[in-house]
TrEMBL record:
Pfam families: ABC_membrane, ABC_tran. The chain crosses the membrane at residues 12-33, 101-121, 486-512, 524-547, 623-642. This is Uncharacterized protein. GO terms for cellular component: membrane. Residues 190-427, 802-1036 form the ABC transporter domain. It is a multi-pass membrane protein. It is found in: Membrane. InterPro entries: AAA+_ATPase, ABC1_TM_dom, ABC1_TM_sf, ABC_transporter-like_ATP-bd, ABC_transporter-like_CS, ABC_transporter_C-like, ABCC_6TM_D1, ABCC_6TM_D2. GO terms for molecular function: ABC-type transporter activity; ATP binding; ATP hydrolysis activity. It comes from Arcella intermedia.
Length: 1053
């Protein structure tokens, strides 16, 4: 830029200095605007992060959202965040439009100032001077155009560095435990001496949100923890909901901050977490978890973890993909896979966090005897449980209350010394030895040969990639989303801007040729008018383009998200969350930012090239021959380049999805990964995904350099041709026309190169639009949420009668139905209990009732209305469910309990009181306005279950479904909840799926499901009177079997 400025001063003296100074004045203005862009970009990125984080939260709980038919509510929530993001994007677009337009307009204005000052300083305007100045100033245009790009690049670089800095300066997890590997001939042990632990929150987040979100700084504390245990000891950890059982295990894992005392551990640790964390891989790989395969050991683990029957049902046995977070397994199956992983790891110390809560009593007894007190007999095992029948089999018991160990000793010792423990056991246990006290016989089952399975078992679909040119329909739809009228207006303004620019340059030639035919003021006035018109058109076009491109981006975003939200659950079973998030992060960012930034110069420079080519040919008609030849070479090279560039961009987009998926899964499973010392393995897997992505990016940049060199060479040849033709035509061409042709040739070759590169890049980036539109056209959709002609009555269902008639249902991964010819009738106000072994199909009944998975044969009716004939929203909003996995979203307690704000604070606290959570919530600094963190992690699993029950109490639907709703709650709280349900839903139909027999023993009828079929259905007394009843066997497996039978007899159930 300085060299060109010097040449301009040499050529035009003071006028050149004035022109150069004018351009220099534009640089600080552009830098100032670029800083504004950086500020806006920083805010935009923050809101984009919020949007993507909220989307991740929503996708993680998509099944719950569908159960409650909250799709529209959460779509509006995302659209609200997007609207906020849009405000900042709009500001950024305005600033960018000012900067980009200024870099183009600045040259035209500077040319006007330079030439007018040259004339007013007493010089005669000559072609040699005018067009030399014009050519030099056009060279400066490239320099000026790079200022906003460089400023933007540096601004984004600093924003990225700032974000990385905040991540890198955060303290690492401080593991102040004293740990060592187990020494030969020594027992593994854990020693804790007078230790106090707290949950350490994100300091930055706590600082920012201290006033607004007080709960984020409310730290749960484990106080004065002291014990010593070594190998061969089975330690039970019990206590009420929120007592700190899981926190105690986290403290042993180093996941809580120790503020006093000492923790010493000798030996390796395995963890079976309360909420099983599984990777998106085969069942076998989830069990092996990176450890070498040993067939004998592996088969033994499958046998003892009761997984053989489940493998028979899976289409490819243990080679079946079990989906992200084990989404297509039942709760009990996930727990057993998690337990199998822990046992197969063969560690010294085992932390088992309520591993039997989601399995039936029979399977639970087998798991306890075969695994917990069998295969792990010589290990040190910490066993968190709410199932009191196992306590007498444990060597030691830790009883927790409010973060303190208030009871310590054997089962007998605690019965004698601890009043609360004694009351709990006496109330809910029977001292008579029953079948559950007998060690079950280990059945000799056949080991399954999964190698012979014909079905692939593949659940996660491979991400598809289009091949070939981006179809014209993609561009058409992109402009359609922006609005045809607006897009057409942008095109017209672009043409007018190009024409006015060309006219301003042509006018210089006209002025020189006709300098004697008019006054200086006349030509200056006309020149000013043409220049002013160009400036107005250029800025108007820039603003309109920014608005149109942003409108298109927003409408694409909202349309795709609505489509995703209304996709059936089968879509989410086979599509990783990371792949979906990639659409709304990487692809959406390209649509928001990169495509407009490429399409804008592509459009302008194409129009400019066409106009200048026409003008050159008008002056030098022989120029048309080399122009056609060079254009042909240009087109051939670009087509060759675009074919590669387009596919590389598609590959680049595809290689991003595994990075998102891996990061998302790893962050959710950090405690498990750390417990198994698998950090380096997961880091290496991440680096593999990253290397694949970066290798594609490297090729993309290399290909861009390849085409750049060739385009520069062709441009040089075209300039040479222009000069040769001018020299050959010197006898008849005027100096002004020759100068104009040469200046236009410079301008055209530069503009054409920029247009070609920009269009090539646009075409490759348009694959992001293509991928988003593919979501719209190829994502399967659920049945209509509203069918006006089939709307049920306003107060439907009034009775709550449910009929299943010959129902068959299957999951997409398997050809075998999970519900087989299922027929039954549930009468109004009936309380139905559903029992059966883990994976028998109990939850599948609920999925079919809510049409989460559509049945493929048969009919389901509620109060005589076929539910397949009404809208999904009409169905799901009339039912209520307390799900197996308690899920909460980032927001307040109130917004999670009452997302529609339909209830008063008193009504909410009344519901909380019924589930014994009113005091817990009232004691929080902001009560029901307290913020729930991602996944509800600032509440224990049991507390989240109670809050889910409170949510259903508020909803008060005629039909209530409880799917293992109290599995993670202690028996005393469970009893209170069951009483609340009985009282609050006395006039309602209630379906309860449970493994605890005492939870459903007072139901009107019991349904026993096995292998997707109804094997028993009758009143408790009828089933218990049948000596061959499966339900009788399930009751007999309880410690309090006699008490349960007496209860049935006394209440004549």
């Amino acid at each position: 830029m300085l060299v060109v400025g010097a040449l301009l001063i040499v050529e035009l003296s003071w006028s050149g200095l004035i022109g150069f100074a004018t351009l220099l004045l534009l640089v600080p203005f552009q830098v100032f605007i670029s800083r504004k862009i950086a500020v806006v970009r920083r805010s935009t990125v923050r809101i984009t992060d919020e949007r993507v984080r909220t989307m991740s939260d929503i996708l993680s709980a998509i099944q719950l959202i569908k159960f409650f038919s909250w799709e529209d509510s959460f779509t509006k929530k995302i659209e609200k965040i997007r609207a906020n993001e849009l405000e900042w994007l709009q500001r950024g677009k305005i600033f960018k439009s000012i900067n980009d337009t200024t870099s183009i307009v600045g040259v035209v204005v500077t040319t006007f100032i330079t030439l007018v000052s040259y004339v007013y300083l007493g010089n005669s305007l000559e072609a040699s001077k005018a067009f030399t100045a014009l050519s030099l100033l056009n060279l400066m245009r490239n320099c000026l155009g790079r200022v906003p790009r460089f400023s933007k690049t540096f601004a984004e670089m600093f924003i990225t560095f700032e974000r990385l800095k905040h991540l890198l300066i955060r303290p690492n997890l401080v593991d102040d435990r004293i740990t060592r590997d187990k020494r030969p001939n020594h027992n593994a042990y854990i020693s804790v001496e007078d230790a106090t632990f707290i949950v350490e929150e994100n300091p930055k987040k706590a600082e920012q949100e201290d006033e607004e979100n007080p709960l984020l700084n409310t730290q749960f504390t484990l106080k004065d923890i002291k014990f010593f245990f070594e190998s061969g000891t089975l330690v039970a950890i019990v206590g009420s909901v929120g007592a700190g059982k899981t926190s105690l295990l986290n403290s042993l894992l180093g996941q809580m901050k120790k503020i006093s005392g000492k923790v010493e551990i000798e030996g390796s640790i395995a963890l079976a977490s309360q909420e099983p964390w599984l990777i998106n891989d085969t069942l076998k790989e989830n069990i092996l978890f990176g450890t070498p395969y040993n067939e004998k050991k592996y088969n033994s683990v499958l046998l003892n973890c009761e997984l053989l029957d489940d493998l028979k049902q899976l289409p490819a046995g243990d080679q079946t993909e079990i989906g992200e977070r084990g989404i297509n397994l039942s709760g009990g199956q996930k727990q057993r896979v998690s337990l199998a992983r822990a046992i197969y790891a063969n560690r010294d110390i085992y932390l088992l966090d309520d591993p039997l809560s989601a399995v039936d009593r029979h399977v639970g007894n087998n798991l306890f005897h075969k695994c917990v007190s069998g295969m792990l007999k010589k290990k040190l095992v910490f066993f968190v449980t709410n199932q009191l029948q196992y306590l007498s089999k444990c060597d030691k018991i830790l009883f927790l209350q409010d973060g303190k160990i208030t009871g310590y000793g054997s089962f007998t010792e605690l019965l004698d010394s601890h009043t609360t423990f004694r009351k709990l056991v006496k109330k809910y246990s029977n001292t008579e030895e029953n079948e559950s006290g007998k060690k079950p016989q280990v059945e000799k089952k056949d080991i399954i040969d999964t190698k012979g399975k014909k079905e692939s078992g593949t659940l996660t679909s491979k991400e598809e990639r289009n091949i070939g040119v981006v179809d014209f329909s993609v561009y058409k739809q992109y402009f359609n989303y922006g609005g045809y009228k607006l897009s057409l207006s942008v095109l017209i303004l672009s043409i007018l801007t190009g024409v006015s620019h060309a006219v301003s340059n042509w006018f210089i030639s006209y002025w020189i040729d006709n300098v004697t035919k008019g006054s200086r003021e006349f030509y200056v006035g006309l020149y000013f008018g043409v220049t002013f018109l160009y400036v107005v058109l250029a800025y108007s076009r820039g603003f309109l383009f920014a608005y149109t491109s942003l409108r298109s981006a927003t409408r694409i975003h909202n349309t795709v998200f609505k489509v995703i939200m209304h996709a059936p659950m089968t879509y989410f079973y086979s599509t990783p969350t990371g792949r979906i998030l990639n659409r709304f992060s990487s692809d959406q960012d390209k649509i928001d930012e990169e495509i407009p930034e490429l399409l804008n110069p592509a459009l302008l420079n194409t129009i400019s090239s066409i106009i200048t080519l026409v003008l050159i040919v008008a002056v030098l008609y022989w120029f048309v021959l080399p122009a056609i030849l060079m254009l042909g070479v240009f087109v051939w090279i670009i087509r060759y380049f675009m074919a590669s560039s387009r596919e590389l961009r598609r590959l680049e987009a595809i290689t991003v999805s595994p990075i998102f998926a891996h990061l998302s899964a790893s962050l959710k499973g950090l405690p498990v990964i750390r417990a198994y010392d698998a950090q380096y393995r997961f880091e290496n897997e991440y680096f593999v995904h990253l290397d694949k992505h970066h290798s594609i990016l490297l090729i993309v940049e290399t290909v861009a350099r390849w085409v750049g060199i060739r385009l520069d060479a062709i441009a040089t040849v075209m300039l040479a041709f222009t000069a040769f033709i001018i020299m050959a035509s010197r006898d008849w061409i005027t100096p002004a026309s020759a100068g104009l042709a040469m200046a236009y040739s410079f301008q055209m070759t530069g503009a054409f190169q920029l247009a070609v590169r920009a269009f090539a890049e646009t075409d490759s980036k348009m694959t992001s639009v293509e991928r988003m539109l593919d979501c719209v056209s190829n994502t399967p959709q659920e049945a209509p949420h509203k069918i006006e002609e089939s709307e049920p009555p306003p107060h439907w269902p009034q009775k709550g009668a449910i009929t299943f008639n010959n129902v068959f249902m299957k999951y997409p991964i398997s050809e075998s139905p999970v519900l087989k010819d299922l027929s039954f009738t549930i009468y109004p106000k009936e309380k139905i209990g559903i029992v059966g072994r883990t994976g028998a199909g109990k939850s599948s009944i609920i999925s079919s009732l809510f049409r989460i998975i559509e049945i493929y044969h048969g009919k389901i009716e509620i109060d005589g209305i076929d539910i397949s004939q009404i809208g999904l929203q009409d169905l799901r909003t009339r039912l209520s469910i307390i799900p197996q996995d308690p899920t909460f979203f980032i927001g307040t307690i109130r917004s999670n309990l009452d997302p529609w704000e339909a209830f008063s604070e008193d009504q909410i606290y009344t519901a909380l009181k019924k589930v014994k959570m009113d005091k817990v919530i009232a004691d929080l600094p902001s009560g029901i306005e307290t913020i729930i963190t991602e996944g509800g992690k600032n509440f224990s699993l049991g507390q989240r279950q109670l809050l889910c029950i409170a949510r259903s109490l508020l909803q008060n639907s005629k039909i209530l479904v409880m799917d293992e709703a109290t599995a993670s709650i202690d028996v005393e709280t469970d009893s209170i909840i069951q009483k609340t349900i009985r009282e609050s839903f006395k006039e309602h139909t209630v379906i309860t799926i449970a493994h605890r027999i005492n939870t459903i023993i007072d139901c009107d009828r019991i349904m026993v499901i096995d292998y997707g079929q109804l094997v028993e259905f009758g009143s408790p007394s009828d089933l218990l009177s049948d000596p061959n009843s499966i339900f009788l066997r399930l009751v007999n497996e309880n410690d309090d079997a006699q008490k349960l039978k007496s209860f049935v007899r006394e209440n004549k159930l």
